[in-house]
Amino acid sequence: MRRFAYERPASLAEASSLLAQAGEGARILAGGTDLVVGLRDDTIQPEIVVDLKWVEEFQGQTIDVRNGHFIFNALATMTQIEHDVRVLGQLPALAEAARVVGSVQIRNRATLAGNICNGSPAADTAPPQLLYGAVVVVAGPDGERRQTVDEFMLGARRPGPDKRKVDLRPGELVTAIEMPVPAADFSAAYTRLVRRKGTDLASITLGVSVDGGGVTQVAYGSVGPRAFLARDESGVLADPTAGREARAAILDELLSQATPSPRSIRAGPDSRLAMLPVLAMRALDSALERRSGSAA
Prior knowledge:
Layout: E1 5-7, H1 12-22, E2 26-29, H2 35-40, E3 48-51, E4 63-66, E5 69-73, H3 78-83, H4 85-90, H5 92-98, H6 104-109, H7 112-117, H8 126-131, E6 135-140, E7 143-148, H9 149-152, E8 173-180, E9 187-193, E10 204-210, E11 216-221, E12 228-232, H10 244-254, H11 269-295
């Protein structure tokens, strides 16, 4: 581990200023579950680490519900999310994803914002965030801006000189992630594929949502440079009486953006592509059962 400066800003403005001054030499510490590993093996060599845990704007409730939106600030952890009664009742797919991130110790530290800020296509919470229409709130030297998670996650292996995996500019940091409270007739479920039970990274992450208008969404990751969101408005997938073959054909189309890497050590492309529709059908059935239970 190489030497680096360490700062504990007391305000959002101070944090942004430190990040802007250091540029690419700065790293943020919120949960630190990825940062600490990178520091130890020298894959991350920052000039300065900016610790957000003392920022005044992040103190108090890390999870709040205001004006019809869930608001998760930059310090909201996976443990807090998986046990929050409001999340369990209204964002169950997000709770399901948070529950399988790493070990208990990791979940006690890992943050929702950090899970997508590293830009990994295997981020467990990326699919449910896409399903629930999450918006990333970013603050920096030029003020505050908002963008959807789909816009925020740029992806890996992009052509051109810009190799950023997420849309964060110099001096910017994620202050919150917001999700609208779902309608009563909206349901979602999350599942994933791993090589073994425990703390393994997922070979496939996948979520499905269904709403009262018959619109079905499928969000999936670990099978390309970023997580994808696809929609079906035919109503066939949302109809539990529809034939299995008809539903399978539509799911195949929705999953067509999958391009798993042949270099992955977790699973080969063929096995991932074979398991994608299996997991999608399972998640679809779970979402429909959950919606039926809500209606009852």
